[in-house]
Amino acid sequence: MSNEPSPPPAERGGRDPSDLLQAVDDKARALARRLLAETRFGALAVLEPGTGHPLASRTAVAPDVDGAPLMLMSGLAAHTAALAADPRCSLLLGEPGSGDPLAYPRVTVVGVARRLERDTEAAGIARERYLALHPKAALYADFGDFAFWRLDVLRASLNAGFGRAYALRPEDVLLGG
Amino acid sequence: MSNEPSPPPAERGGRDPSDLLQAVDDKARALARRLLAETRFGALAVLEPGTGHPLASRTAVAPDVDGAPLMLMSGLAAHTAALAADPRCSLLLGEPGSGDPLAYPRVTVVGVARRLERDTEAAGIARERYLALHPKAALYADFGDFAFWRLDVLRASLNAGFGRAYALRPEDVLLGG
Prior knowledge:
Number of strands of chain A: 7
Low-confidence stretches of chain A: 1-16
Number of domains of chain A: 1
CATH class of chain A: Mainly Beta
Oligomer: homodimer
Structural class of chain A: alpha+beta
CATH superfamily of chain A: Electron Transport, Fmn-binding Protein, Chain A
Number of helices of chain A: 4
Radius of gyration of chain A: 17 Å
């Protein structure tokens, strides 16, 4: 992957932001799906209870069967209390390497987090998939104050590098539709 | 830096989240200041105009003279429109290496973003400091739709690794008070 950004467009003044969106094609879909499938952690944005202030924190993730992000969260963490009060959130996935951090692809998955109730089939599948990627989490995954959550995807924003932005629907980023 | 998480406490059930906060000491302050001083990019959480949905996106950063994060943002970017409508935001700084992503230190700087008006002294200093860290941004930093923004710090949350969380005041993370 190149770490050189594409040169920005020579003329930009006065344009509408939607002009910068690219038409969604199979290459964009494949890149977004790869980011969801391969990324082990991300930045979760939630709303602080009471104030509504947006808060970002690191969270480990694993892909559910359809690619939607799964998270294992402690009931003692601030973001967990936030999601219990308002489940709206987004998750930035895709880490840069060396060089210009804005030249590397990343996707923001926008949606609603849903707690998977213990001893359900969904929680069992989540546990298996998450621990396959994060084996050390077996140390605490079954503690009473931890639970698996799934980010139900409403839409996603893919940025494939400088000036290459795509607005994606759930069926563009999830598998099997 | 070790990539092994500390073992979680053996007993956690029923505790209050504030029990997990550590007393702020000089080591925690130094770590937070180092993260602000050295990190080149972060995850910015903002509120989507109209809906209030929290959105996370990648942004390149550089430290202002006192360590507060400086960002160079296009007026065409969704997060810029969001900050113009509601300047409340937070910025997650500190990237993990290999191994457990939750074992690496990171800080969430919580505050309010402020656009630095062009041709002011503050904007000039921001430009110099930002381009020193991101020289390729000279290609577009002076375009009419770009501007420097500063994150005025209200507070910060430091996570120094599994279970080691600190609530920091601005004077704990900024230089020179």
